[in-house]
Amino acid sequence: MEKNGCPPDVMTFNTLILCCSKNSKTSKVVELLCIMAEKNLSPNATTFSIA
């Protein structure tokens, strides 16, 4: 995605977090939240409601 000039946004991460959460991939959720922080993206209310 980023290689094509389309950086992920909060909505992208929310979608990934939701999928991981539904599939009991808790460690992946934490990893995604860390990647968000590295990219200076702040979780929003939606992020916290699904994480």
TrEMBL record:
Q: Which Pfam families match?
A: PPR_2
The alphabetized UniProt keywords are: Repeat
Q: Which residues form a coiled coil?
A: none
Keyword Amino-acid biosynthesis listed? The answer is no
Return the PROSITE patterns for the record.
Answer: PPR
Which spans of this chain does UniProt mark as PPR repeats?
Answer: 9-43
Protein name, entry field: Pentatricopeptide repeat-containing protein
Q: Which organism is it from?
A: Rubroshorea leprosula
Q: Mind giving the lineage of the organism this protein is from?
A: Eukaryota, Viridiplantae, Streptophyta, Embryophyta, Tracheophyta
